Amino acid sequence: MKVSAGILLFRERAGRLEVLLVHPGGPYWVKKDAGAWTIPKGEIAEGEDPLATARREFEEETGFLPPGGEAMALTPRRQAGGKLVHAWAVRGDLDAAAIRSNTFTMEWPPRSARQQEFPEIDRAAWFTLDEARRRILKSQTPFLDEIDRRLTPGGDAGPGC
């Protein structure tokens, strides 16, 4: 079973919680928007610490070091394809328009024998929780619900908040 780890960066603007989501790069995702966005995340290598993976992947996919503040563990969630995703909510801010993602190479167009390079993440944006729920992969929506419960006044602040 594949296991990934990621960081859900959040900030407050005008009294509203916003989260940073990223859009997958490459030809398969070009025309997809609603339900295609994700938290910056990647696969955990054998023996690697999941939070260390989340921090590494955040930097690889955005070009920014993740903030060094408290990392609030969220409940791991299984994605539609079976992958288990561990996530941490971290308070911070960055210029979403300035991300610089690592790249990957694949044959494109299919069966052309041509290798092309694509950014792993083609863009990032800050969204209110309501808008993020429309944009994020359905299987990652519970991360948004949990951060909402734990960080919204009157919600379940839980341990470590």
Question: Can you describe what's shown?
Answer:
The chain has three helices and nine strands. By secondary structure, the protein is α+β, with helices and mostly antiparallel strands. The chain has one domain: Nucleoside Triphosphate Pyrophosphohydrolase (Alpha-Beta Complex), CATH 3.90.79.10. Strands 1, 2, 3, 4, 5, 6 and 9 form a seven-stranded mixed beta sheet that branches. The protein has a two-stranded antiparallel ribbon with strand order 7-8. A hairpin with a 7-residue loop joins strand 7 and strand 8. The chain starts with a strand and ends in a 10-residue tail after the last helix. The C terminus is likely disordered.
Instruction: Specify Rg, calculated over alpha carbons.
Output: 16 Å
Order of helices and strands: EEEHEEEEEEHH
The major pleated sheet works out as:
7 strands, mixed
Structural class: alpha+beta
Judging from the principal axes of the Cα atoms, what is the shape? globular
**Name of the CATH class:** Alpha Beta
What share of the residues lie within helices?
10-25%
* Unreliably modeled segments: 156-161
| Residue-averaged pLDDT | 92
What is the CA–CA distance across the termini?
A: 30 Å
Number of strand segments: 9
**Beta-strand content:** 25-35%
Q: What is the level-2 CATH architecture name? A: Alpha-Beta Complex
Number of domains: 1
CATH topology: Nucleoside Triphosphate Pyrophosphohydrolase
